[in-house]
Amino acid sequence: MVREYSTALIRYFARRGPRQDAEDLAAEVFATAWRRRNDVPREAVLPWLYRTAGFTLANARRKHVDLPVDEVPESGVARVDGDPELNSLFDAELRGALASVSERDRQILLLHAWEGLDGAELAEVLGISRSGADAALSRARKRLREAWGERMSF
């Protein structure tokens, strides 16, 4: 299980918090999976791990105290015709739109976009039915589109 899913879990945590914490948090998830190995569904291991990762991340965030920083470096692929100024505006608008939707909507959108979960896997992580997950993703997309439209400044 560790060999097969460790990269996915480390990426999950690295996208949501400090990279230096990602491996430790992934190890914590695998420790939980070991302790609860009889509860891990063989047909849906990764969704179960993602769901556990969500709880682990929430617990870690409650313990963490943020320290202010003057500047956080951004990295990534250019998205707006290679213009750094437009890329910066685009990133800020997207972060703002994501920040304005609910925590649950944000979780659903990021599990879908970053982790590639859809349908049954998304339902398993959220602990709801497949049709419920599809509806939740649709509603989350709609609310993000609305938030994005309200925030677009360029």
Query: What form results from the Cα inertia axes?
Result: globular
Helix-and-strand structural type? mainly alpha
User: Biggest sheet, open or closed, and with what strands and sense?
Assistant: none
Cα gyration radius (Å): 17 Å
Provide mean pLDDT, rounded.
Answer: 82
Strand content of the residues, in percent? under 5%
Low-confidence stretches: 69-80
What count of helical segments does DSSP give? 7
The first-to-last residue Cα distance is 46 Å
Helix content: 55-70%
Total beta-strand segments: 0
SSE pattern, N- to C-terminal: HHHHHHH
Structure in words:
With 154 residues, the protein is mainly alpha-helical. It is built from seven helices and no strands. The chain has helices at 2-14, 19-35, 45-63, 84-100, 103-113, 119-126, 130-151. Helix 1 packs across helix 3 (45-63) and helix 3 (45-63) packs across helix 6. The longest helix has 22 residues, at 130-151. The chain is globular, with a radius of gyration of 17 Å. The N and C termini lie far apart (46 Å).
Give structural attributes:
154 residues; mainly alpha; globular
